Amino acid sequence: MKISQLMQSVQEGNFDEKFISLYGEEALDSQRKRYVSILEKAKEAYGDQDAHVFSAPGRTEVGGNHTDHQLGKVLAASLNLDVVACVIPTEDSIVTYRSAGYTVQPVDVKDITIHPEEKNTTEALIRGVAAGLCARGYQAGGFQCYAESDVINGGGMSSSAAFEVLLGTIQNVLYNASKVSATDIAKIGQFAENKYFMKASGLLDQMACSVGSFAAMDFKDPENPVVEKVPFDPSDYGYNLIITDVKASHADLSDAYSEVPAEMKAAANVLGHEVLGESTLEELLAHVQEIRNQCGDRAFLRAYHFVCETKRAQEEADALKAKDIQTFLKLVRESGHSSWMYLQNISVPTTPKSQAVAIGLALSEAVIGEDGAYRVHGGGFAGTIQAFVKEETTPHFIETMESAFGKGCCYILRIRNVGGIQVA
User: End-to-end CA distance of the chain, in Å?
Assistant: First the structure.
């Protein structure tokens, strides 16, 4: 279908049912306008050609804060915030990617060697996803693309993983007859980020973006993670899922992030393991002094967080399966407290006067109390916090947050039941 025909089809309401399933009925008008705008810009960039439309979501982590890189358990979900792309297949091997505010050089995906100069670039991810597909016996080809994203950068929603899942989904549909599984698309995205983008990451982000819905994940075998969908919609219980941007910069926090897995692994090494996923609470408690002496007190505390948090993530999934919302919310609060007390990813020790995440959590506690839940969202130290807020409390919650962090800092989110997909 030509881009102009896709635009007309959107305007005539032919995609309304799909838009409602992805974004909710309240967002129907805004999503129609958004898709028409993206298609119009693609038409301006490439002409009125035959095209497809793809979408890949951001994610939210609900349980298992900093557990995936230690091969633990996580509870996460796909969100209604996503990256949407109008894609035109080509007969060559060149991927041309355009997006508002970004300049990306064309990438020839016949060349799947690592280019060190592409470190931390979009080009690296395009090439890395192609390389990951080829390494698994799949195909990669060229296309022209215009995309826009409303996934919050640095908001713990994994904008880079959403992009990787988008790329994998495009290549899967165009050149692999949709034979690549959601799990493999996630692994390929992680491979691209680790080897080509040159950033260490676990598999949580990509898996949550690729699988869809609430999902309980066990990374004990990182090559074959166990993923179980757990259907859950907070609105069924009268709660809104709200992410608050506390307006704290992620700049210069790479050391703070890298110290978390490094200290956890150091504690695991004292126990004779590579990662903490191989350890038990009893084992950890039996070696408190050795860990303190060899790794420092914070390493023990972070290890303690891990062994309790990975167990808690499983308990959260079990509570949702049992439709026990109060136990689930209690566990989410406990997860947040553990991140604050033991994992210590709420503020940076070198900047004690800047504690925006802690302010957000304190305000959440004041408004929500035990009638809901709140916790740090994502990697921590800056970025966002997550809260499950009663619908009747939501206006007061948002007003309180905006008084501290400014208008528009809160996002009421929906859980999306699918990962990366072809929309048209």
Answer: 9
Q: Phi, psi (5° rounding) for residue 96?
A: -110, 115
Distance CA(14)–CA(27), nearest Å, equals: 15
As a whole number of angstroms, the distance between CA 132 and CA 140 comes to 9
Query: Which pLDDT score is estimated for 285?
Result: 97
What whole-number distance in Å separates Cα of residue 6 and Cα of residue 9?
5
* Strands ordered across the beta sheet of 372-377: 372-377, 384-390, 239-245, 410-413
If one counts every other C-beta atom within 10 angstroms of the C-beta of residue 224, the result is 11
Number of alpha carbons in the 13 Å side-chain half-sphere of residue 71: 15
Please state, in angstroms and rounded to a whole number, the distance separating the CA atoms of residues 340 and 230.
27
Give yes or no for a contact between 327 and 319, defined as CB atoms under 8 angstroms apart.
yes
What is the Cα–Cα distance from 336 to 358, expressed in whole angstroms? Answer: 11
Q: Is 13 left (phi over 0), alpha (psi -120 to 50) or beta?
A: left
Distance CA 205, CA 193 (A): 11
* Mean pLDDT score, 64-80: 94
Q: How many CB atoms within 10 Å of residue 267?
A: 31
Provide mean pLDDT across the span 125-152. Answer: 96
Distance CA 309, CA 63 (A): 7
The kind and range of the H/E element at 47 are none
Q: What is the pLDDT of residues 370-418, one digit of tens each?
A: 999 999 998 899 889 999 999 999 999 999 999 999 999 999 999 999 9
pLDDT band at 155 (very low <50, low <70, confident <90, very high): low
Q: Are 298 and 331 in contact (CB under 8 A)?
A: no
Exposure string over 50-77, b if 16+ CB within 10 A, otherwise e: ebbbbbbbbbbbbbbbbbbbbbbbbbbb
Rounded CA Rg of the chain:
22
CA distance 408 to 85: 25
Structure tokens at 186: 């996630």
